[in-house]
Each structure stands twice: as structure tokens, then as C-alpha cells.
């Protein structure tokens, strides 16, 4: 997962992850290894700040 500079750390993406993979820190997102690249969080971000790595 690539987190763009304009992420506001609002936590919306963490709220939609069914596997609970995203931890929102003050100035960072921590994505756990449980992530299955489903892309739901990418679509949920209001700022388009997430991108799945190829
Ligand atoms: S929803 Fe978008 S802006 Fe909010 S914490 Fe997640 S990546 Fe950042
Ligand atoms: S891609 Fe899917 S599993 Fe991975 S962090 Fe986003 S919502 Fe969770």
C-alpha cells in the first residue's frame, strides 16, 4: 500500500477494513501483513490518498 503525502490521518480507511489491518498513528498509517489487497480502503478514502502497490 502506498500512502500519499496528502493523507489527513482521518481513519476512514481503517474503519472499512474487514480484516482490521490499518492502524492510524498521528502521522503514519501502519498496514499489517494480514492485508489481502482487497482495495476497499482505497475506494473509501475521501482524499484518494491510498494506492495499491503493483
Ligand atoms: S481515509 Fe485516506 S486520508 Fe483518511 S487516514 Fe485513510 S488514507 Fe488517510
Ligand atoms: S486492502 Fe483490504 S485488507 Fe488491505 S488494508 Fe485495505 S481494506 Fe484492509
Automatic annotation (TrEMBL):
<dbReference type="Pfam" id="PF00037">
    <property type="entry name" value="Fer4"/>
</dbReference>
<dbReference type="InterPro" id="IPR017896">
    <property type="entry name" value="4Fe4S_Fe-S-bd"/>
</dbReference>
<dbReference type="InterPro" id="IPR017900">
    <property type="entry name" value="4Fe4S_Fe_S_CS"/>
</dbReference>
<dbReference type="GO" id="GO:0016491">
    <property type="term" value="F:oxidoreductase activity"/>
</dbReference>
<feature type="domain" description="4Fe-4S ferredoxin-type">
    <location>
        <begin position="1"/>
        <end position="25"/>
    </location>
</feature>
<feature type="domain" description="4Fe-4S ferredoxin-type">
    <location>
        <begin position="26"/>
        <end position="54"/>
    </location>
</feature>
<protein>
    <submittedName>
        <fullName>Ferredoxin</fullName>
    </submittedName>
</protein>
Amino acid at each position: 500500500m502506498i500512502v500519499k503525502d496528502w493523507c489527513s490521518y482521518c481513519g476512514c480507511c481503517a474503519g472499512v477494513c474487514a480484516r482490521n489491518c490499518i492502524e492510524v498513528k498521528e502521522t503514519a498509517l501502519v498496514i499489517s501483513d494480514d492485508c489481502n489487497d482487497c482495495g476497499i480502503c482505497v475506494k473509501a478514502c475521501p482524499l484518494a490518498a491510498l494506492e495499491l502497490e503493483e
